Amino acid sequence: MSFLLVLPILAPLTAAALAAVLGWRPLTASVTVVAALCVLVTGVILGFTNGSGVRFAIADLFRTDALSITMLIVIGTVGTLATWASVGYIDAELTHGHTDAKGANLYGVLVPVFLAAMASAVLANNIGVMWVAIEATTVATAFLVGHRRTRAALEATWKYVVICSVGIALAFLGTVLVYFASLHAGANSGDALNIDVLLAHASRLDPAVTSLAAGLLLLGYGAKAGLVPFHTWLADAHSQAPAPVSALMSGVLLSVAFYALLRVKSVVDLAVGTGFLRTGLIIVGLLTLLIAASLLVVQTDFKRMLAYSSMENMGLVAVAAAAGTKLAIAALLLHVLAHGIAKSLVFLGSGQLQAAHDSTRISDVTGVLARSRMVGVTFLVGLAILLGLPPFAMFASELSISRALADAHLGWVLGAALLLVVVAFAALVRNGSRMLLGPPTPGSPAIAVPRSVAAALVAGVVLSLLLGLTVAPMLELFQTAATMLGGTR
Question: What 3 state SS string does 243-260 have?
């Protein structure tokens, strides 16, 4: 069983080592897809066999429970779709001269490293190890954001590195303060940062030190999650990264960073009460929703539009976490999974639109449904999910979050969030209809879809429908995770 716990880390690292030796080729690309699938399958197996228990591995540095298993399923699902699409995407980039063999080889190494780092973060029992893993995602994705080596890509890379480094430095200071508080609460120095140890000593943690640490961790990991005030890197990075990497960053990385906040919240709530982080999450969540909705209204670039949609959804996730009830946390986890699949569809589709038009301006893309049934339908499905339309799972998650906020007596928060979500809804409908509907502009280029990209898009649509129509198999896992995090009612 210990091997199964670390397989989601070892499988991608093995794929990265193979890519480093052999370079980008069909074999190494296929091995990376298999490695991502291993993460997903491992999560599913653990979900059926782990129950409500907690298991440890490698001197208690790694653990699995309902929350980490849920995140493994998210990483594996989006990772499989993104790496599958990467096969055709990178081949097309090589054909059109947007990258070279060296760039393709680097991509082949860094993507599985990125997957391994995210898996390490969600499996870590030690929040110091979790911090290292999330920092490793910054290093891997920095080179991926600058994949095309254009001026805009390099500028986005530096912005991403600088802002996220500030955030991760704040998270490091918060982690040090948690270690200090844990030692003074009687924990041993060797395991003072272990989640199980922190939960056991939470009632003895110094409230002032813990509150300061919580504030730093909220700002630090919030930066990686695309939350205010360190959110400005997100649109630049997502718009310049290769489409499969954008899918991974938007669909998984933001959620992994927020996962770290959920782990911290479970300790802080026991140490200083639920009010402290609740207030912080409400403020940050609503401000993130406000900025995302405002920027969506004036957006003219479709990849940046999708990035701001990610900000909007992370703001909504923060507000749900603030409610903190069992229903809110379960709905949050469903939202994260549905959002990950949706962002895979729209970003992978946007990659084909960008390749066809050599542009990401909304005004340059018209009549997509009439020109490519594959891209048009899958992009439409992705937008429908993001808009929270039935029968897709985000309809249920947003409805449940609304009910949870009302039950938690946060009616004013619910009202403000709904208003901002409606603004974002209108902006996405307007921009999406401009791209998808109507007759194509004369002389519009053909939209080519490589077979691996088409397969990933079809798989994403099928998964979206299955999740929306048969979410029941996942509910017990979500509810167990919510109970473990201290959710009530």
Answer: HHHHHHHHHHHHHHHHHH
- Could you give the C-alpha distances from 262 to 255, 257, 433, in angstroms and in order? 10, 9, 36
Reduced to 3 states (helix: H, G, I; strand: E, B; else coil), residue 55 is: strand
Alpha helix segments (H runs only) across 358-446? 368-371, 373-386, 393-407, 411-436
Q: Where are the beta strands (DSSP E) in 98-246?
A: none
CA–CA separation, 37 and 322 (whole Å): 33
**Angle CA(89)–CA(6)–CA(76) in degrees, nearest 5?**
35
Q: Which two tokens stand for residue 221?
A: 């990991």
Q: Which residue(s) pair with 63 in the sheet?
A: 56
CA–CA distance, 265 with 288 (Å, rounded to integer)? 19
**Which residue in the block uniquely carries the two structure tokens 């770290």?**
260
Q: Provide the whole-model pTM.
A: 0.96
Q: Provide the 10 A C-beta neighbour count for residue 209.
A: 18
Q: Which helix (H) or strand (E) holds 140?
A: helix 127-145
Instruction: Give the pLDDT confidence of 240-278 residue by residue, as tens digits.
Output: 999 999 999 999 999 999 999 999 999 999 999 999 999
Q: Is the pLDDT of residue 489 over 60?
A: no
Task: Give the number of other Cβ atoms within 10 Å of residue 62's Cβ.
Answer: 23
